[in-house]
Amino acid sequence: MSDIIQLLPDSVANQIAAGEVVQRPASAVKELIENAIDAGADKIQLVVKDAGKSLIQVIDNGCGMSGTDARMSFERHATSKIKKAEDLFAIRTMGFRGEAMASIAAIAQVELKTRRHEDELGTQIFIEASEVMKQEACSAVAGTSIAVKNLFYNIPARRNFLKSNPVEMRHIIDEFQRVALAHPGIFFTLHHDGQEVYHLPATTLKQRIMHLFGNNYNQRLVPVEEDTTIINLRGFVGKPEFAKRTRGEQFFFVNSRFIKDPYLNHAVLTAFEELLPDDTYPLYVLFIDIDPSKIDINVHPTKTEIKYQDEKAIYAIIRSAVKRSLGRYNITPSLDFDQENSIEHLITPKPFEEIVAPVIAFNPNFNPFTKTERELPFLRDTGGGSGHSSRINPIPKNWDTLYEISKKEEPIQQQIHTEETVAINEQDIAKTSDRQFFQIHNRFIMSQIKSGFMLINQQAAHERILYERFLQQLQNHSGVSQQSLFPQSLTLNSSDFELLRELLPDIRALGFDIREFGKNTVVVEGIPADLNNVGEHELLERLLEGFKNNLSILKLDKRDNLARSLARNAAIKAGTKLSSEEMNLLTDQLFACQMPNVALNGKPVISTFTLNELLERFEK
């Protein structure tokens, strides 16, 4: 029997390695930007086309490479970061394995231009599927420019598994944000399909957060700083009142490297105990500086997981530092002098003036019970305290009929004063007039039935009604829009803007009238007609947050996710007082649903209690 074990060809080995390192275009973006940072660049440009599927180009002004180094950079396990095994425990650079460039070159067409600052000519290399097609000298600016074209062109199966352009672009933006946050002293730009998405000048960490997520974050941040013999901790956490329902804005960096660590995340959440509403998560951007010999970052191909020698002590330090910062800074406003370009707007205090007691003038001869003064209630002293009075304004005729309009009978309230309006017509009232409903603690609707009585959770019932209605509107594109008298503009961060662009056709099917208006900005000209008591900004932001939360937890279909998110945000809330007509209509609409007994969270909407159960409780 012949031998069956053999070495894999380099091209196959590189493609296998690429499956670990380059999972999607965002993975290549991360590796290329980190290489630019390791090269000492202070200006990095990222250019993306077709969400990275057609082109990913990174241009930096770093140290550049010689011709030999440029060629060696595409070999497997070729790196300038480590030379012996001990160096693995003293790593301060972003990359060190020497797999990224070889993996990218195995699944794409790569063009590299590089020149060192001291050289007159640079080097240009073309590679396809790990094969060097051409290498030659060329004129180039100092630094490195690498273009990755047609990612996964030679692996059609992998390319077919890529998501839509908006989804892949959101992953690229996530990776870009993580690197930009970790290095606020570097100038970054991001262009997608010819449009500038980010323009981030070198600045402080707080300013970088504001440039990435919006200027309104200036008032949301609480500084955190703690120096110990184990770690040095710095960064910002968000105030509890600005917590969101998604975990998106949570960043941990260890030695400027982004990591995912549920254990340390739990340390931050415990510091927010009793400060956060249910199912909400705080913002935090925290940097841990630790001795590299005390950690091991070589435990995951993407280098996003780290092992610590003393993780319990790190947990305690983070928890106590965040908790102390919330206590010190959360209740007092912060002044950010870095945000203001000048202090000319400050009001110069006036010189000290002598405080003078106020003088009160009155008529000592005023008698409200005399006929003359009763007819002329507005009197003034004509001077000298002589008691002479004069009328300022005559009393208008028929003044006693002015408020008769308030005595008219008020119309019956036929709308639920909540985030969703339920229309009531005469047929519905006549149909339900023979039933009686009672509201308990403004949370449950109680009604008598033949066998006893039933309790309806009003919020869960309304969510079920709206959910099925929105699903039908998405399928039939039948949503009706209520035009706003004054259209509102809404500026989102880049990730949410890309998500909104992806969802825009379905959002319009629900009745939203939205159009793009410049960079990361949309104009809301109308909202669903049934939701006219809700602010456009709040409704749209909650819709996007709910969609992202469902996407990360429930993995729902896009339309199902949209209908569920909008229903939960637009439904009446527990504590809302309802009239008899509103309770009647809500009950009728509930029992007209396909699944009236099941809430969106899978729990029951209706609970019934039989007469026998009541008698047993009273021991009869």
Primary descriptors:
620 residues, alpha+beta, Heat Shock Protein 90, Ribosomal Protein S5, domain 2, 4 domains, 8-stranded mixed beta sheet, 5-stranded mixed beta sheet, 17 helices, 32% helix
Fold and architecture overview:
The chain has 620 residues and is an alpha+beta fold. It folds into four domains: 191 residues, Histidine kinase-like ATPase, C-terminal domain (Heat Shock Protein 90, 2-Layer Sandwich), CATH 3.30.565.10; 117 residues, Ribosomal Protein S5, domain 2 (2-Layer Sandwich); 48 residues, no CATH class; 182 residues, Ribosomal Protein S8, Chain: A, domain 1 (2-Layer Sandwich), CATH 3.30.1370. The chain is 32% helix and 21% strand. It is built from 17 helices and 22 strands. Strands 5-4-3-6-2-1-7-8 form an eight-stranded mixed β-sheet. Strands 9-10-13-11-12 form a five-stranded mixed β-sheet. Strands 16-17-18-22 form a four-stranded antiparallel β-sheet. A hairpin with a 4-residue loop joins strand 9 and strand 10. Helix 2 runs parallel beside helix 6. The longest helix has 19 residues. It is globular and about 100 Å long.
Short note summarizing the structure:
The protein is an alpha+beta fold. The chain has helices spanning 10-21, 25-38, 67-72, 100-106, 156-160, 165-182, 205-213, 262-271, 311-329, 371-375, 426-432, 458-476, 494-509, 536-553, 558-570, 580-591, 611-617; strands at 43-49, 55-60, 109-115, 122-128, 131-138, 143-149, 187-192, 195-200, 221-227, 232-238, 250-254, 257-259, 284-289, 295-296, 307-308, 437-440, 444-449, 452-457, 481-491, 513-516, 521-528, 606-610. The chain has four domains: 10-200, Heat Shock Protein 90; 213-329, Ribosomal Protein S5, domain 2, CATH 3.30.230.10; 358-405, no CATH class; 427-608, Ribosomal Protein S8, Chain: A, domain 1.
